[in-house]
Amino acid sequence: MLIKLALKSLMNRKGSVLLSLLAMTVSIFVLLGVEHIRHQAKESFSKTVSGVDLIVGARTGSLNLLLYSVFRIGAPTNNISWKTFKEIASGSNIKWAIPISLGDSHKGYRVLGTTEDYFRFFSYGKQHRLRFTQGSAFSQLFDVVLGSEVARQLGYRLGDELVLSHGLASTSFSLHDDRPFKVVGILAPTGTPVDQTLHVSLQGIEAIHIDWRQGVKIPNSTITREQLEKMRLEPKAITAFMLGLKSRMVTFRVQREINNYRQEPLLAILPGVALSELWQTMAILEKILLLVSALVFVAALLGLSAMLLASIRERSREIQLLRVIGAPPGMVFVLIEMEALLITIVSIISGAGILLLCLATTQDYLMSHFGLYIGKNIFSASSLYLAAAIVAASILAAAIPSAQAFRKSIQIES
Predict the structure, then answer these.
(1) Are 383 and 29 in contact (CB under 8 A)?
(2) Terminus-to-terminus CA distance in the chain, angstroms?
(3) I want to staple 374 with a disulfide (CB 3.0 to 4.6 A). Which of 40, 119, 207, 252 is the partner?
(4) Does 13 share its domain with 78?
């Protein structure tokens, strides 16, 4: 009966109630959205690479090495010689090594030069290996394996040919159009930057650059594809490499040896430690986003409280009628709180619904442009705690107008 009475009371004040409902919906949408994206982004980053003990690159900052080698963000300060890679990879404590060569692109997507060991040993999430939905790993010089998002966005299928661009620009006029690659495999979705990457062999990278000097193609080159396929193409340098160790007990010892490598300046990082540093760097931004969204919600709560407080003056006759029919002052207090609670519950449902709709429509965009997999399931323990906190805050904010109505009902009685 009390809920029905509260609903009728709200329906009598449609205009002001609707504005308060919209303000609350927007604030809850922002609050839930920031919290959900924050957790999902952190989870997406943390599951990008697993099972890799060390990542090695030219001496630079650990975050920079992590970003360009794993997330394909930024550029390396220098390359590593192939001789250095072979020497370190042949160490007694090394189980496997995956070389990485970056620098080319295709329609805005990064090209990764590597070996077949990449598909054998690289893992993401909870030790999940890469899987193929179609085809297999590259075996020929001009074979290319596509990430799932590249294949989906560009509409490529097995057997299609594509041309790589020199450099990382989304629109490039320096094309390796004389040596197209053939799609031989498409990887299963991973929710990581692998989905936005084209994978070719290190020999393929060397082949398309064999007649280029300082980023410019040598004119009138006469080297044919057949000649290239017969050559022993070995890279002179690579961008970075990943290491898997036989025992994690020697991780710090191997890391120290690499960092003290005398032939050239190198940096070896632990992916987990570098990720922790990344999130410490992002912590300030996280807190600012949460603070802004919380302030938006507080502003909406103050608006709700002001709307209910202003309505008390207009409801003297309603309160008087309730007292005449025998309603105690406490019932009037609970009635105002019930109205605030109903507005809050409807706002939570509306805000969550809008958030689900936005996630459903922007998930592909976030995946293709930022490499972030933001799940559509917003119903987690943290979101439920947040919804409970929102309800509690709305009840608290409605206490002032409820107390005002309580006093007014007492005055009517006296």
Answers:
(1) no
(2) 26
(3) 40
(4) no
